[in-house]
Write a structure and sequence with these properties.
By secondary structure, this protein is mainly α. Helix content is 63%, strand content 5%. It has 19 helices and six strands. The strands form three sheets. The chain has a two-stranded antiparallel ribbon with strand order 1-2. A two-stranded parallel sheet has the order 3-4. Helix 15 crosses helix 16. The longest helix has 37 residues. It is elongated. It binds arginine (ARG). The site of arginine (ARG) has 9 residues, from helix 7. Arginine binds next to helix 7.
Length: 455
């Protein structure tokens, strides 16, 4: 069964291993845009006639309509999207179609098309990242003072607020946005006109095609133009980092929706039931966001391996640059949509979160800070005394605020009743007013900061 279709011999094997049309047909819009820009430049510089240009424009428009309508006869024997469209053009308009490839090669053509595709992907993902930031911000806005435990090592560390926690993700996503935008700036130079690798003897105008395609200008070295794929690597690396951020929130949702935590509830739309356990509400969407980080990162590592050690300039290895990028872009887009949807769907259980915020002696740092401030103890000593108070509370089965003053004074006689004011989670968060800290008034100010930027 396997290999049966290779019975025709080497030519069938070659056709199959060589063809990229199965996946690079996704570049058809960019290919037509690039060809139109090239043809207009060829006419403007007198390399082809105005009649040829008119025929090419008409033919490409008709081909675009064919592809759009699903009526285009894709042919594997024609290898890739570039040859498929060019062959079809010649079929439709004859001689003029054969002039389109003057002063151009598939090497600069594919580099141009792929840059255009990645640029479009960046623009789409950037809009989605902003929407996801807004979804985090909406939760933050409602919960600037909603108490929850802050964790380190997965252990309750200090009380924080849900709003502060949400804004941490807004910060991460804003850097992701910055990475995509930075990558876009470096990507936005046009390789078209580098031809096969050394440029061309025809009097082309690369500045014209670059401008027509929305690039900032032409690339400066023809060899680099056809050999470079670092724009795709940067895209994948920004995507992988962004996905890793989303995976961290996804993991938190998996934890928070588990009955043991019970911090938030997701509706039926974004969870699944079990066929055998009727009580189950599985956070599958969150789990898949967590998991898809793997394939996105895989695409980055895959392309790094393809590009490593490739002597200049173009080699067919580089045809392997596309599938990972297409898949990573689609996967990240879905992860962003799912994350935004879960944020807008989730119902936090504020009582449970507040109760958890006070558990695990989470205000021990506040107690130690009080000993430093009020009793002028060195912090290390205050830390030690607090440790003994925690141990005492633990042995008595209560929390810190549950210790009587007498019990506290057995450990440190100078402690006064005023200490109880700092032992609640609400007092703890309210006190952390240092810039970037968790105090509700800080959180509210940061919500305003992001609202102004995101609208
Ligand atoms: N399908 C090829 C790719 O995606 C297009 C460029 C082919 N160039 C060549 N000289 N064979 O990389």
């Amino acid at each position: 069964m396997w290999g049966g279709r290779y019975a025709e011999g080497p030519s069938a094997i070659m056709r199959e291993i060589n063809a990229s049309i199965g996946f690079d047909r996704k570049l058809w819009r960019q290919d037509i845009r690039g060809s139109l820009a090239h043809a207009r430049m060829l006419a403007a510089t007198g390399i082809i006639s105005a009649e040829d240009l008119a025929a090419i424009e008409g033919g490409l428009a008709a081909i675009a309509a064919e592809i759009e309508a699903g009526r285009f006869p894709f042919d594997e024997a024609l290898e890739d999207i570039h040859l498929n469209i060019e062959a079809r053009l010649t079929e439709r308009i004859g001689e003029a179609g054969k002039r389109l490839h003057t002063a151009r090669s598939r090497n600069d053509q594919v580099a141009t098309d792929f840059r255009l595709w990645v640029r479009d992907a960046i623009d789409g993902l950037a809009a989605q990242i902003e929407d996801c930031m807004r979804a985090f911000l909406e939760v933050a806005e409602r919960h600037t003072a909603t108490l929850m435990p802050g964790f380190t090592h997965m252990q309750p560390a200090q009380p924080t607020t849900l709003g502060h926690h949400m804004l941490a993700y807004v910060e991460m996503l804003s850097r992701d946005l910055g990475r995509f935008r930075d990558a876009r700036v470096r990507l936005n130079e046009c390789p078209l006109g580098a031809a096969a690798l050394c440029g061309t003897g025809f009097p082309i105008d690369r500045h014209m095609t670059a401008a027509e395609l929305g690039f900032d200008g032409p690339t400066r070295n023809s060899l680099d133009s056809v050999a470079a794929r670092d724009f795709a690597l940067e895209f994948l690396s920004a995507a992988a980092i962004c996905a890793s951020h989303l995976s961290r929130f996804a993991e938190e949702l998996v934890l928070w929706t588990s009955p043991a935590y019970g911090f938030v509830r997701l509706g039926d739309g974004l969870t699944t039931g079990s066929s055998i356990m009727p009580q189950k509400r599985n956070p599958d969407a969150a789990e898949l966001v967590r998991a898809k980080t793997g394939r996105i990162t895989g695409a980055l590592v895959g392309l790094l391996m393809v590009m490593k050690g490739l002597a200049l300039t173009y080699a067919k290895d580089m045809q392997e640059d596309k599938e990972g990028v297409f898949d990573a872009a689609a996967s990240l887009s879905l992860c962003l949509a799912a994350t935004a949807a879960m944020l807008r769907d989730m119902r936090p259980d504020v009582d449970r979160m507040a109760a958890a915020a006070g558990a695990g002696f989470s205000t021990a740092t506040d107690l130690a800070d009080w000993l430093v401030r009020e009793l002028k103890l060195p912090f290390r000593e205050a830390h030690h005394i607090t440790g003994r108070l925690v141990a005492k509370a633990e042995s008595l089965g209560c929390d810190l605020a549950g210790l009587t003053l007498a019990q506290m004074q057995e450990v440190e006689p100078r402690i006064t009743r005023a200490v109880y004011d700092v032992l609640t989670p609400a007092a703890s968060v309210a006190s952390r007013r240092s810039f970037g800290g968790t105090a509700p008034e800080n959180v509210a100010a940061m919500v305003r900061f992001w609202r102004e930027r995101l609208g």
